[in-house]
Amino acid sequence: MELQLVNERRRGPYAAKRLSEFAARCRRGGLAVTPQRLAIIKALLGSGEHPRADAIFAAVRIQHPHISLATVHRTLETLCDIGEARKVTTLHDSARYDGNMIPHHHVVCVKCRRIRDIEIPRLDRILAGQSELGEFTVLGSSLEIQALCEDCAAKRANRTRKPRR
Amino acid sequence: MELQLVNERRRGPYAAKRLSEFAARCRRGGLAVTPQRLAIIKALLGSGEHPRADAIFAAVRIQHPHISLATVHRTLETLCDIGEARKVTTLHDSARYDGNMIPHHHVVCVKCRRIRDIEIPRLDRILAGQSELGEFTVLGSSLEIQALCEDCAAKRANRTRKPRR
DNA sequence: AACCAGATGATAATTATTATCACCTAGGTG
DNA sequence: CACCTAGGTGATAATAATTATCATCTGGTT
Fold first, then answer.
1. Is the pTM of this model over 0.85?
2. Do the bridges between strand B86-87 and strand A97-98 make them parallel or antiparallel, or are there none, so unpaired?
3. Rounded Cα gap, residues B137 and B131, in angstroms
4. Residue A74 sits in the same domain as residue A116
């Protein structure tokens, strides 16, 4: 079997480990360890639901009634920046459409958001053979590769070479 | 080579073919063939940029100065419904986060938007070996499988069995 | 204990998308 | 070919997620 649902049981120990390392990882990323950040990462690691910002907000509010929704949004983005979380969806701020209905996938520049089509015949073959996945009936799929395009890589290199100070 | 950028040259003939079949496909989908819809699919097929609604709006406006932005949004969604276009991003109306940083992918129910993690070790192996892709430097990737969960499939079956009339 | 860069809370601003509704038109019907 | 009507459109308001702003607060270092 090529595709399989992830075993949920592994989540507990994994979350505990991640949580115990969190303070150290914040400091490594140059971030202060605040009660809000702890509460947010805890809520995120404790959820298998791929929650939205407002769900995290609701969960965290129980212990931190004064926390602001803006803080939750900001913190989740920050966590993604230091590699403590990832966004399941949308690298883009608005929907993008594609008229090409031939099966294909996408590379997206995370900086300028340019998109190029790519083909991965072997992946399409794997997916074509899989119409059921646990309790799900497969309808379609799309692979998105996050990348840096030439132009943006060049710009970034310039900035790295001579950081303003 | 497992992954490769799609050759752009193929787009012209492909677009011409799709365009010539468009009216028939609309009727098959029970849709009227309006000048607006024609203009929008034409703009979409003519673009390799995976455009946003507002870009399509700008393009179409040149020939149809009175078209409404709402029509463009509506039409693009309609085109997706009848399989004439697809959304490159965001099945969701808001961002969703994941605390699990172990490489994995997602199945999403297109109805209730429930998400489950899946593992595809073979895909991860393909991707791990690919740090360059044409002019792009690969940073990460995520596969999203669109599906229908058990519950939503059951609900849909009920509706299909007894369509109200 | 004091300091301050960075974090937070409160709120306003922004922006993509959807809803509403009066009017219009594609495409069948007599 | 003129007419009819379900469905489509334009204009605009409403909604809702996210981001910006800014005064205040605090983690962590001195």
1. no
2. antiparallel
3. 6
4. no
